[in-house]
Amino acid sequence: MIPLKVVRDFNRMDDGDPEEPPQFRYEACDGERYPEYYQGVHGYEYRLTDRLGAVKKEVAEGSKVEP
């Protein structure tokens, strides 16, 4: 788990898209870490369930076979 203070510090320093939550990559687990729930310093709320739904939709759309 990443301490909330660290996440907020990165959120304040990030000049990227405020609609994307602060994310971290770990070499040990070979992937991105996405918050289960986080309300950012700019007022956006991020939920893991929203992210998982978007990924499932992308996979479903990518698996469609055109006639």
Give an account of the 3D structure:
The chain is of the alpha+beta class. The chain has one domain. The strands form 2 sheets. The chain has a two-stranded antiparallel sheet with strand order 1-2. It has a two-stranded antiparallel sheet with strand order 3-4. β1 and β2 form a beta hairpin. The longest helix is centred in the last third of the chain and has 15 residues.
Detail the poorly predicted runs.
none
Bin the helical content.
25-40%
| Mean pLDDT reading | 76
The percentage of residues in β strands lies in 15-25%
Number of domains: 1
DSSP helical segment count: 2
Overall morphology: globular
In total, how many beta strands? 4
Distance between the termini: 46 Å
Main beta sheet, described? Answer: 2 strands, antiparallel
Our Rg estimate from Cα atoms comes to 15 Å
Secondary-structure element order, as H and E? HEEEEH
Structural class: alpha+beta
Order of the strands making up the biggest sheet: 1-2
Feature tags:
alpha+beta, two-stranded antiparallel sheet, 67 residues, 4 strands, 18% strand
Write the SSE topology.
Layout: H1 4-13, E1 24-26, E2 31-33, E3 37-39, E4 45-47, H2 48-62
Antiparallel strand pairs: 1-2, 3-4
Short overview:
The termini are far apart. The chain is an alpha+beta fold and 67 residues long. The strands form 2 sheets. A two-stranded antiparallel sheet has the order 1-2. A two-stranded antiparallel sheet has the order 3-4.
